[in-house]
Automatic annotation (TrEMBL):
Alphabetical UniProt keywords: Oxidoreductase
Pfam families: Acyl-CoA_dh_2, Acyl-CoA_dh_N
Protein's name according to its UniProt entry: Thermophilic desulfurizing enzyme family protein
Entry annotated with the keyword Signal: no
Length: 435
């Protein structure tokens, strides 16, 4: 198939200025030491971002400053080992940190979530040496990691010789990659298309050509546009989970169920920034209602304040109840991530596919619930804020646009069907790029 024709911008668009957040490099020079400290740091980041989130989103500039803010905060390192300068927190804390940042700015919560997944990819699909080496590289240098792994596109094609693998091709979506230090590439070997290889390479290479064409309705600061990959090589030692001598997948790494954890792990990333965006919308709307919304004077049961209106109180209460339930479910799935990784990370061969299936169905449940409640809350808040809240300067619409954009990533209807087969037939989903 011919390479898709896409609009190409010859140079990078204007970017947000990292200098605007320079003060936080020294303010946050000391990193938190426990889970609550990391969550508080995430809340501080969200507070900084929320001040001008609507204006930055409208400007649609490349988020270099926002990535710098994440670096200053230490949040890029929250999952990394302490011996390299990381927070050494479990995935459950990482998921909550994503959620907290997304409350202030959905785009930056998404960028953080993708980074945390890609920065830990070698721990899931790589061997022990690769996992250790890349973690040292990423955490010690405070690198931001993006990816070019959209499975809906034709795979990047991999050619190889005795020393290197080389990627060529095109990807429609490369979230965060254009503002990254490292990029995760995934492709199929040209003469063995059923065999795929992940590798992590430096982003600043002439053969990685970003098109800077992300101009969608939501998540506008995620640099999720397309890229062309031409002649990008990595040594066989960087082919995650592959045997250097045989040039084949290492059966001790990729021949077991453990690497199939990568997909539930990222699906739970998605659900947590959906949840954070929805919680952010409710909080934003609450502040607007309590300061700006006027009571309706023609209802026959007139109130002096909007906060005394029955339907407003009822709606907020209902939204709050559903979001609280969604948080509980997301936390349950996060706790199970901790159990699985804590039990099997150092004993991967013992990981049973049945446990992967059970966790995948729990994650699918979170995806369904956060999609449904997220869309309902981010659209419904307008009913309790009033017509003036639709003004562009208010920026309340960004929450719905952000959730609407990413919930189309993979149709939630298939998650409902997957859960239906689990309930009715006791079937676990077959591991795929989306389940």
């Amino acid at each position: 198939m011919a390479t898709p024709v896409v609009p190409v911008i010859s140079q990078a668009p204007s970017a947000t200025d990292p200098a605007v957040y320079a003060e936080y490099e020294s303010k946050w020079a000391t990193y938190p030491t426990d889970a609550q400290g990391w969550l508080e740091r995430a809340r501080e980041v969200a507070a900084v971002l929320s001040v001008d989130a609507a204006a930055r989103e409208k400007a649609n500039k490349s988020p270099k400053a926002e990535v710098a803010l994440l670096k200053h905060s230490g949040l890029l390192k929250v999952l990394g080992p302490k011996k390299y300068g990381g927070g050494e927190q479990p995935w459950s804390v990482g998921y909550e940190v994503i959620r907290e940042v997304a409350k202030g700015d959905g785009s930056i919560g998404m960028l953080l979530g993708y980074h945390l997944l890609w920065s830990r990819t070698a721990h899931v699909v790589g061997n022990d040496e690769q996992a250790e080496r890349f973690q040292k590289l990423i955490i010690e240098n405070n690198y931001y990691v993006g990816g070019a792994v959209n499975p809906r596109d034709n795979d990047l094609k991999i050619t190889y010789d005795d020393s290197n693998i080389t990627y060529n091709g095109f990807k429609n979506f490369t979230t965060g990659a254009a503002v990254s230090d490292l990029i995760v590439l995934e492709g199929a070997i040209h003469d063995r298309p059923e065999e795929h290889i992940f590798a992590i390479v430096p982003t600043a290479q002439a053969g990685i050509q970003f098109h800077y064409n992300w101009d969608n309705v939501g998540l506008r600061l995620t640099e999720s546009g397309s890229a062309k990959i031409e002649g990008i090589s990595a040594p066989w030692t960087d082919a995650l989970g592959w045997d250097v001598a045989t040039k084949k997948p290492d059966p001790a790494v990729l021949g077991i169920p453990f690497p199939a954890l990568l997909l539930p792990t990222i699906q739970l990333v998605f659900s947590n920034f959906y949840l954070g965006i929805a919680l952010g919308a409710l909080d934003f709307a609450k502040k607007y209602t309590t300061t700006s919304t006027r009571a309706w004077p023609y209802g026959g049961d007139n109130k002096e304040k909007a906060t005394d209106e029955f339907y407003i109180l009822s709606t907020y209460g209902n939204f709050f109840a559903h979001l609280r339930a969604a948080e509980a479910l997301a936390n349950q799935a996060g706790a199970e991530a901790d159990r699985i990784y804590g039990t099997y990370q150092n004993n991967r061969a013992a990981f049973p596919i049945e446990e992967r299936g059970e966790w995948a169905e729990l994650v699918a449940s979170v995806k369904v619930v956060t999609t449904d409640v997220g869309l309902r809350v981010t659209a419904g808040v307008f009913e309790v804020t009033g017509s003036r809240a639709t003004a562009s300067k208010v920026g309340l619409d960004r929450f719905w646009r952000d959730i609407r954009t990413h919930t189309l990533h993979d149709p939630v209807a298939y998650k409902n069907r997957e859960l239906g087969r689990y309930v009715l037939l006791g079937e676990h989903p077959e591991p795929t790029w989306y389940t």
